[in-house]
Amino acid sequence: MTAVPPQPTLTDGEITLRPWREDDIDVAHQLADAEISHWFDFEGLPPREGLAEAVERWHQQYDDNRSTVNFVIEVDGEAGPAGNVEVRQTAPGVGELSWTTYEPYRGRRLAPRAVRMLITYAFGELGLDRVHAEIDAENRASIAVAIRAGLRREGRLRGSATLKGARRDMLIFGLQKDDPAPDTLPGWTAQMDTLLPKKRVIAHVVVRDTANRILLCTTGFKRDLELPGGVVEPNEDPAAGARREVVEELGMELPVGQVVAIDWLPPWHGWGDAIEILYDGGVHPPELLEQLQPDGREILKADWYDADQLKGLVSPLNERRLPRVLAEPNRLHQLRDGNPE
C-alpha cells in the first residue's frame, strides 16, 4: 500500500489552507454562531467536544486513505482560523465539498477563493474526476460561494434533506476535472448557461383553408383542441421545430412561413412560463384533410373550425388569441397570455 503523504499546506499568497492544530479548536468553537448552528442543524451552539471529535476524525480519515480532507482557512497576517473547507470522497473519483466561514470573516469573499484552491487540490493531488456540493435552496450565502468558486448548477433534489424537522430542497453545484477552467471564456459561459433562466419555446403553425377556417387537432393527451406543432428541442431553431412537429403529427410537410404571433405564456397548471411562436402555415383547400395522416397516438384527427366555434373547444388562451389571428392573419401579433401587449 502506498503511504499517504502528510496533509499539505496550500496558499495563494493571501489565503492559506492548512491542517487543523489543537489550538485551533478553542478559537473556532468561540467563533461558532447562530448562522452555523442553523445550517448545520444544531440545537443551540455546537459543543466544543463535538468540534474536537470532528478534528480528530478528520485527521484519522486523512491518515487512513484521505477519504476526507478538511483544511483550516487562514488569512495571511491574521491569527487564527477564518473558517474551513472540506472534500469528502463519496465514490471512486468523486468528492463532496463543504465549507464554513466564521462571522468576523464573512463578506470578504474568502470562501470562494478557498474552495477554488480546494478544487485544484482535489483534481490534482487527490486525483478526483468530479466534485460537487449540495446546498440548501434557501442558503443564499453558500450558493453565492459555489457560483464564485466556478461550480455549475446541475439540478435540484426536492425534499432530499431535513432542517429543523422539515423537508428541504437541495441544489447541486458541480465541476468535472475536464471542464474548462471557470476563469476562461468557455468555462464562464458554460457556468452561466447553468445559472441563467431557460424558457421553453413552443412553435405552432396556423393552417387555414379558403374559408378562413383554422386547422385544429384532437389530441390523445388532453381535451382541448390544439394547433399542430409543439415544443422546440434543444439546439433546434423554432421554425425547424415547427416543421418537424407538423411532419411527426400529421404525416406531411406543410409550409412554415412568417411569424404571425409571439406570445408570452405565464406559469399554468404546473408548467413554467414559456415563449410561444405562431407561424403562418398558408391557405389550403378544404380537401387538405384527406392528405393528412395523424400519428394516431399524439394526434387522433384534425379538422377545420371557424373562429366562432372555438369557445369551449380550445384552451382559454387560444380562445383569446386565435380569433385575433384569424381576423388579421397578415400582421404580427405581439401578445401576453393571448392578449395584446
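^ that was protein a. below is b, sequence first then the C-alpha cells
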Amino acid sequence: MKQRVILLVGILISTMSYAQFEISAGTGYAIGSAEMKLGTETTTTSVENTYGSYGEGVNFQLRGTYFFNEKVGLDVGVGYLNGVDHTINKTTVPGVDVDAIARGRAYGATVAVAYKFTDNFYGRAGALLKIAGKTEAVVFSSTLLSEAEREPYNLPEGSYSETNYTEDFHGKFPLGFVGALGYKFPIDNNFSIYVEAEYYGISLKRKDSELQEFNTNLFTPDGNMVAESVYTLDNLPAGYNKKTNYVDELPNDNTDPSKKLSQKVPYSSFGINVGVTYKFKKAAKQ
C-alpha cells in the first residue's frame, strides 16, 4: 500500500511539474453531414424532399486545454452555433402559398482528449453535449378564404389570409462525438494561430415545441388589409396549439392535437475553424 501511495504521489508530482495550460478562441463554418429529410417542396406538378443538417452554419468557440505531459491533455470547450436557414415547407399551389424555414440556435460543450503529434500538429476527440438552444421555425402562409370565412367580413371572392408565426422546438439531452485535427502557426512564445478541421456527430430527439409569435391578417384580392390580428397567440385557429409535446407512442385513437410522435433531427457537421491560442508559461520541472 505504501508503495502505491508513493507511486501515485510521484505521478502527480511529475504531472504538475510539466503543467501546460492554454486557451483558444475562434470561429468557423460547418456544412451538414449525415443529412436527413427536413421537409418538402410542393408544386402543382411534383413533391420533392429537402435534406440537410441543422448543424450547418457559423460557430464560435472558447476552449481551455491542460496538458499533463508533452503529448496528452484534457480539452474542455463551450460554443455557440448560428445555423443557416433550411426549407421545411415550400408549397406553391393554387390558393395556397407556404414558405417555412427552420434553423439551429444552440449552445454546446465538449470534453475531449487532446494529443500532440508534433509541437504544432494536434488532434482531439471526445464527447459533445448540447447544453441549451432550440430549432427555430419561421413560417409564412397565404391561403384563399372560403365563402364561409369571407361572409363575416363581407369580403369578395379572391380574398385571402396571411399568417406569420414562429415556433421553437426543443430536444432531449443528447450526447454526441467531436473529433478534430489542427495545426498551429506560432507567432511568438505565447501566441499562435490555429487552423483545424472538425467533425460533430450528434442528433437531437424532439421533446416539445412552443409557438412564440402568431398573427393572421385578412386581405382583399387587390392586397388591401381589411382585418388585422384575426388570430393571435391568445386566439389560435383550429389545428394550432401553443405547446406541443413529442412522445414515443400514441394510441391509434388519439384525439389530442397537442401530442405528436417524436422524431430525431440531425445536427452533425464537418467544419473548418480558425482562431488564436494563448499558451501560459509552463511550470518549471522539479
